[in-house]
């Protein structure tokens, strides 16, 4: 019995030694939903994160004299797997800090794990307001935009007196938070919200929900638009357009999206909205480098979430370089109010809720037959000071 207990103790000690970060390393866990409907988002985030580390460290992949080691986990977009993946990363792999994850429900499941282990989690690319709102804790910092930033920027871009808008949201935390924020922001523009509908992320038939939206708008005077808060493989605007909204004088507005979805926007010339990122819009050294390197290595421009992963990497390196430590108690005071460069320009972690404040971009869709996707042409940069982003943190 003594021999068996001794063997178990030695094995446990060996496992701990293997998992722990060496003194000359910083272990970073990258959690993403590589399997499932948000696979494209996850791949872009990882590509951007690795490129961002390279850029921020000037090619050394080291900060404060320590080599950055990335441990990757696939949560498949499932909250229970996300929670266990982050726990495993901290307890078994010895991760010092974590970045992730792709879906909002999965990210919400991870928040208490960071608090329990007293380690920093940089949220990218999940968007739901709850993450830096009522589910937040002091170990959470988010480089991704939140639902309010999406919604307020789109309300600024399309809202005006005489405009009637019906909203379709995906039926999860991301969709409900987005619609709530949009409603609040739209009320300040003079536009009228006449209806809101929700559908599951895996919806392919939008006939019923589409007809309800059309019926809500058809008898309204003035401009009539449908705006969506959506994440997933299916583009609801494309499906709704197949149902003949022009019969009712109904048009569309839309938030920015990844390039494969923008390809479907080619049927909507003149469509207006606001975007988090489009590679040709920002003009700064980080974006110039990202675009050039991404096109050289992948033979395509960087996409929506590539920029997000890059921003998370820049935040990570900036914080570690300033704090000279991976200890959360040393990182938190450094990161609160911290400014850092990204492909979108300057971001700032707001002290109250650790949300990254950042510019957004109002656009109008231009169709060029020589470009595979619709082009969101900049009509206005919506700057940090232009958006009154609510602080939803109750702590």
UniProtKB/TrEMBL annotation:
Where in the numbering of this chain does the Leucine-binding protein domain appear? 25-366
From which domain of life does this come?
Answer: Bacteria
GO terms for biological process? amino acid transport
InterPro entries from the xrefs?
Answer: BCAA_transport, Leu-bd, Peripla_BP_I
Protein's UniProt keywords contain Signal:
yes
For this chain, the family text in UniProt reads: Belongs to the leucine-binding protein family.
Protein name as annotated: Amino acid/amide ABC transporter substrate-binding protein (HAAT family)
């Amino acid at each position: 019995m003594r021999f068996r207990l001794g063997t178990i103790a030695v094995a446990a000690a060996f496992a701990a030694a293997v998992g722990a970060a060496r003194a000359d390393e910083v272990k970073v866990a990258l959690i993403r939903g590589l399997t499932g409907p948000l696979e494209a988002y996850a791949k872009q985030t990882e590509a951007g994160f690795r490129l961002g580390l390279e850029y921020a460290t000037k090619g050394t992949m080291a900060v404060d004299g320590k080599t950055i080691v990335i441990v990757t986990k696939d949560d498949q977009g499932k909250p229970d797997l996300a929670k266990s993946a982050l726990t495993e990363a901290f307890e078994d792999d010895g991760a010092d800090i974590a970045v992730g994850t792709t879906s909002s429900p999965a990210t919400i499941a991870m928040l208490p794990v960071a608090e329990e282990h007293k380690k920093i989690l940089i949220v990218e690319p999940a968007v739901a307001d709850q993450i830096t709102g009522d589910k937040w804790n002091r170990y959470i910092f988010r480089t991704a935009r939140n639902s309010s930033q999406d919604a307020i920027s789109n309300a600024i871009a399309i809202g005006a007196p005489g405009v009637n808008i019906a909203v379709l949201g995906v039926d999860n935390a991301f969709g409900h938070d987005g619609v709530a924020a949009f409603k609040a922001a739209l009320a300040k523009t003079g536009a009228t919200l006449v209806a809101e509908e929700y559908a599951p992320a895996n919806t392919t038939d939008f006939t019923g929900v589409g007809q309800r939206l059309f019926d809500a708008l058809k008898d309204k005077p003035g401009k009539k638009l449908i705006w969506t808060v959506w994440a997933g493989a299916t583009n609801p605007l494309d499906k709704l357009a197949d149902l003949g909204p022009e019969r009712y004088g109904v048009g569309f507005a839309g938030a920015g999206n990844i390039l494969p979805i923008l390809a479907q926007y080619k049927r909507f010339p003149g469509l207006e909205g606001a975007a988090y990122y489009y590679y040709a819009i920002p003009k700064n050294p980080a974006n110039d480098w990202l675009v050039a390197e991404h096109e050289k290595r992948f033979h395509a421009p960087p996409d929506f979430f590539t920029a997000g992963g890059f921003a998370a990497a820049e935040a990570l390196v900036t914080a570690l370089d300033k704090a000279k430590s991976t200890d959360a108690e040393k990182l938190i005071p450094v990161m609160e109010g911290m400014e850092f460069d990204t492909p979108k320009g300057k971001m700032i972690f707001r002290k109250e809720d650790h949300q990254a404040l950042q510019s957004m971009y109002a656009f109008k869709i231009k169709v060029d037959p020589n470009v595979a996707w619709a082009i969101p042409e900049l009509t206005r940069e919506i700057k940090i000071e232009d958006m009154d982003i609510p602080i939803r943190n109750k702590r």
